[in-house]
Amino acid sequence: MKLLHTSDWHLGMTFRGGISYGLDQKFVIDKICKIAVDERVDGILLAGDIFDKSIASQEALQIYDEVMTYICGALNIPVYAIAGNHDGAERISQCSELLKKSGLYIAGALESKPFVVNNGNVDIYMLPWISTDKVKSIYVSEAENINSMEDAYKIVLDDYRAHFVPGHKNILVSHAFIVNAETSVSDRAAEVGKATMVGSYLFDGFDYVALGHLHGPQQINKNIRYSGTPMVYSFGKEEKQDKSVTIIDSDTWEQKIISVPQLHKRVTLSGTYDELMNADYPEDVLNGYVRLEVTDCYVGMDSIAAFREKYRNLLEISSKGFDREDGKITMTIEEFENADTDPESVFKRYCQDIFEESPSEHMISLFKQALNRYEKEVTEA
Question: Among 147, 293, 368, 380, which lies 20 to 30 A Cα-Cα from 89?
Fold first, then answer.
């Protein structure tokens, strides 16, 4: 049995300021579908965070509906999907029994019995995102023994292992944060939720563990893998990641990593104003999602207008601070353009970049007082 492992589509995600990634997401999912056809897979493992928000946008729902109809209907490839921490578990699993008949298997929330789909001698166990409280409510007799996420995962996975059928091969689809796994900038939920980390030993016994949650593709051990996001969602580390899907063969447990092309290259470019304006970059960079680091001056609206002529999808600029040689301020293009109408947001971003912390309510109050005095002086001048 050949299966394609993917995760963390984050349908509906937007860049700060509301720029839609809809076209990019359609593009990469189309490439995933092509890979599935070319590799003649028997199913797709979708390991959570299908959506970016629990209440998905209309655009995200439309993409999801079109994609699942195409994969399960036109391609006749089953999809085994679980809810991640970003997904609305109850919403995503509505009509799940009915959808099974179409080849769409969805595990929305943890239930009292393991969600397992049998395919001959291969059993696919589906474990959605869990919390300690959820596990306590399901495994009531074990509630006193659950004091951490490790405890919760151990109880659930021990139960799953107890259902193993002799002679069968066992695949687990899960959404979890493994200790020592590498995060990316766009792993915002993981970075603030390190208390949810669990040891890889908890997944012992499964022949392959298809994980979601972290955005960088990575191998935890020979049986456990994060497929990562199919799209580059942040600047920095993620720019250098080769986005991919994983094809696994249950006969040999061989893993085949296949790259997923991107609609827009994402890149950070650094240099002086003149260097960035005169640089001869290839078209995929000029048309890509760009973050500029301007090293010699503060960037104003005139500079932004000039940069946008050269870099068609400029998203973010980092430049020298207003009055500190060693200070830098980073803002999205929309934040720069709205500086006149929303100065408080600019002040907050400035404090985060220069002082490396958000301003207190007292500092914001002082800023507003100073701004009001300045506006009064300008009016009376």
Answer: 147
Are the C-beta atoms of 98 and 74 separated by less than 8 Å? no
The pLDDT tens digits of the residues spanning 209-236 come to 999 999 999 999 999 999 999 999 999 8
CATH of 2-259, one of 3.60.21.10, 2.60.40.420, 3.40.1390.20, 2.60.40.1090: 3.60.21.10
Q: What is the reported pLDDT for 232?
A: 95
User: Model's pTM, two decimal places?
Assistant: 0.83
| Among 112, 117, 35, 31, residue whose Cα is nearest residue 79 | 117
Q: Beta-strand (E) ranges in 120-253?
A: 122-127, 169-175, 177-178, 197-198, 208-212, 218-221, 224-226, 244-249
Helix (H, G, I), strand (E, B) or coil at 347: helix
What are the tens digits of pLDDT across the range 292-321? 999 888 787 888 889 999 999 999 998 865
DSSP character at residue 69 = I
Under-70 pLDDT residues of the chain = 16-17, 187-194, 320-343, 345-357, 374-381
Helix (H) or strand (E) holding 374: helix 361-380
Query: Is 207 in a helix, a strand, or coil?
Result: coil
Domain boundaries, given as residue ranges, for the chain:
2-259, 266-380
Q: Residue 292's beta-bridge partner residues?
A: 269, 317
Q: Return the beta strands (E) in 40-99 as ranges.
A: 43-46, 79-82
Taking the C-alpha atoms of residue 126 and residue 132, their distance in angstroms, rounded to an integer, is 18
* Alpha-carbon dihedral sign for residues 255, 260, 265, 266: negative
